[in-house]
Amino acid sequence: MSRKRTKIVGAGRNPSLHAGAVNVPVYRASTILFPNMETLRTESAPYTYGRRGTPTTRSLEQAICELEGGARSVLTPSGLSACTLAVLTTCGAGDHILVTDSVYGPTRVFCQRLGKRYGISADYFEPCIDATAIEKLFRPNTKAVFLESPGSLTFEVQDVPGIAAVAHRHGAAVIMDNTWATPLYFDAFRHGVDLSVQAATKYIGGHADVLLGTVSSNEAWRARLIETHGTLGLCASGDEAYLAQRGLRTLAVRLKQHQESATEIATWLKSRPEVARVIYPVLKGDAGHELWKRDFTGASGLFGMVLKHVSDTAVAAMVDGLEHFGLGYSWGGFESLVVPAHFHRNFPPALEGPLLRLHIGLEDVEDLKADLAKGFERLQQIQQEK
User: Fold this and answer.
1) For residue 66, which of 11, 145, 221, 356 is within the disulfide window of CB 3.0 to 4.6 Å?
2) How far apart are CA 346 and CA 348, in angstroms?
3) pLDDT tens by residue, 274-327
4) Is 202 a catalytic residue?
5) Which residue among 95, 159, 177, 295 is the active-site one?
6) Could you say which of 202, 254, 277, 378 is catalytic?
7) % of the chain with per-residue pLDDT over 90
8) What is the dihedral of CA 110, 124, 198, 32, to 10 degrees?
9) CA within 13 Å, CB half, 102
10) φ/ψ (deg, to 5) at 124
């Protein structure tokens, strides 16, 4: 059996079907012509309509599915649509879902607004909850638990196998947003997850030019996932799928570099007098380190930095003058990014000061350190002028 780094290179490719092309070409298609009435009637052709898949999108689905170790993977137009598809696959009117309080903000908004309109009720739990303590939160109509480990912005690591065991005892499915680690560094299905979600916009695409999501399921949820995906009319373009598949081939080498650079910079930031805390499970002493070490085989380049108490003006002075860190949402591309963290939480974490989310890209770490050091100088200057 091939290891994951080998699967990343070869999965989903069959050059003999595409005139020997190493990469599956871009197929742009809506209408697919059938050779005869019988084929149309039985829909026995491999492709029937562009929304239902083309060779380009199917090859990426197959590659993701092989990397995940699931029974089926589908593509969606964005990471958020992948999250919502997973919820709607497992829940319907009258059902209840438990959601980690550290979930991606737009996923939370979906549960609170559109999910509620569809008759799905949601409760939120502390992300670091003990697996035994979550048992009392289940209701007779709880159909799913939505995990995200590490959590968005505050990077809490959850006891995924422990929570999954409790959920399955109650007949509930386990959904996990696995974008941070990717299937390369966290084997969702082996840890009890039923539907694994990724924003392929991030590390799979890897170049800040793709909007794409994936949902992969185990065998138990395969048919329901395919049905819900098709009924909702979700699909992805051949162009996006092509770019994502091209990015996938270099995922292993990019993630390795992201982790190495992020670990070096996170360690350096811990020594800075302006920094109260760095939130990165890779670091010894981080609240999630032991679970990360137990369940994960690596990490990405995304972490949080809590500053000591300073004014918003000082934070702006630091961030606005950065040369190598772009100010923008998303992450997972080759470039370094910084964004202030704002969130709504039922169980807000205690933070010593402003929280910045950093994505460490592929630049030289010494240049990134120097850039941040100058930023800290600007921050201190504003504070001293007060």
Assistant:
1) 11
2) 6
3) 999 999 999 999 999 999 999 999 999 999 999 999 999 999 999 999 999 999
4) yes
5) 177
6) 202
7) 91
8) -40
9) 19
10) -115, 145
Distance CA 305, CA 278 (A): 5
> How many C-beta atoms lie closer than 10 Å to residue 273's C-beta?
8
Q: How far apart are CA 165 and CA 168, in angstroms?
A: 5
Known active-site residue 104: yes
The answer, yes or no, to whether residue 149 has pLDDT greater than 80, is yes
For residue 371, how many other CB atoms are within 10 A of its CB?
17
User: Please, what is the Cα angle at 134 between 129 and 139, to 5 degrees?
Assistant: 150
Vertex 366, ends 362 and 369: CA angle to 5°?
A: 95
Contact present, 46 and 164 (Cβ < 8 Å): no
* SS3 annotation, the chain: CCCHHHHHHHCCCCHHHCCCCCCCCCCCCCECCCCCHHHHHHCCCCCCEHHHCCHHHHHHHHHHHHHHCCCEEEEECCHHHHHHHHHHHHCCCCCEEEEECCCCHHHHHHHHCHHHHCCCEEEEECCCCCCCHHHHHCCCCEEEEEEECCCCCCCCCCCHHHHHHHHHHCCCEEEEECCCCHHHHCCCHHHCCCEEEEECCCCCCCCCCCCCEEEEECHHHHHHHHHHHHHCCCCCCHHHHHHHHHHHCCHHHHHHHHHHHHHHHHHHHHCCCCEEEEECCCCCCCCCHHHHHHHCCCCCCEEEEEECCCCHHHHHHHHHCCCCEEECCCCCCCCEEEEECCCCCCCCCCCCCCEEEEECCCCCHHHHHHHHHHHHHHHHHHHHHC
Q: Is 51 a catalytic residue?
A: yes
Catalytic residue among 51, 52, 345, 374: 51
Q: Which of 76, 80, 68 is nearest to 12 (CA)?
A: 68
Q: Indicate the pTM of the whole model.
A: 0.95
Question: Of these residues, 104, 124, 242, 280, which one is catalytic?
Answer: 104
Is 124 tagged catalytic?
A: no
